Inverse folding.
């Protein structure tokens, strides 16, 4: 566990030293704040104390930001040769994967924590469903875990950051949109199966304040699967080397 935390701290430092963290935080807060308060289906247009506009925009904003964050985590190190140097140290492949996963997740949690003034402001406007708010944040964290795991996997199989970014988006589109569209066109077991693979249905359920073990299992399972694939990619590279 010490190795995981050491790697996580190294990654966090690299985020802030390269300005990636600042750019992500400013862009995330700017975009989410604009659409939450000023444009489209904003809070004032809806006319009720709710954070659903924020959760809706954050849902799509993180879809782009997290692949941009993770695309360099393995690809850049493979291109520069620092990954081989890291793997020669007394750390396992799992330590490396989990350390990078933890670093990215902590940065996303910081970004979400910085939006708490939105919650306090809406709460001051009128009565707000506290359960739906905290479940919405919980759903965003679970969704971010999935995106991070996918991003780490795609970054682990290429040394090109742009390819890693596009691959992560491609996989994310299936989870975010395509499975949901297909599910609406099928009935019976097929429709239910496609609906289960749709991230939208699980996130919508949690953001409404409903905590279902099936939804949590969905997010944790895909996260674990993505991390396993990333670790397997590193292990395969070691065997080949």
């Amino acid at each position: 566990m010490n190795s995981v935390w050491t790697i996580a701290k190294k990654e966090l430092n690299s985020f802030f030293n390269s300005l990636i963290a600042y750019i992500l935080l400013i862009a995330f807060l700017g975009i989410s704040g604009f659409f939450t308060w000023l444009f489209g289906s904003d809070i004032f247009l809806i006319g009720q104390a709710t954070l659903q506009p924020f959760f809706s925009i954050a849902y799509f904003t993180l879809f782009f930001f997290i692949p941009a964050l993770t695309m360099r985590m393995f690809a850049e190190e493979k291109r520069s040769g620092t990954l081989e140097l890291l793997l020669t140290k007394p750390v396992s492949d799992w330590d490396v994967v989990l350390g990078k996963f933890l670093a990215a997740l902590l940065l996303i949690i910081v970004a979400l924590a910085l939006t708490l003034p939105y919650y306090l402001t809406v709460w001051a406007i009128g009565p707000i469903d506290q359960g739906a708010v905290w479940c919405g944040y919980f759903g965003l964290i679970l969704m971010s875990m999935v995106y991070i795991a996918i991003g780490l996997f795609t970054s682990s199989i290429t040394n090109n950051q742009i390819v890693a970014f596009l691959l992560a988006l491609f996989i994310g589109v299936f989870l975010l949109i395509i499975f949901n569209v297909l599910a609406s066109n099928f009935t019976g077991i097929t429709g239910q199966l496609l609906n289960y693979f749709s991230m939208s249905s699980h996130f919508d359920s949690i953001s409404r304040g409903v905590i279902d073990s099936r939804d949590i299992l969905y997010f944790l399972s895909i996260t674990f699967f993505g991390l396993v694939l990333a670790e397997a990619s590193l292990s395969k590279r070691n065997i080949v080397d």
User: Anything to note?
Assistant: Residues 52-80 form the longest helix (29 residues).
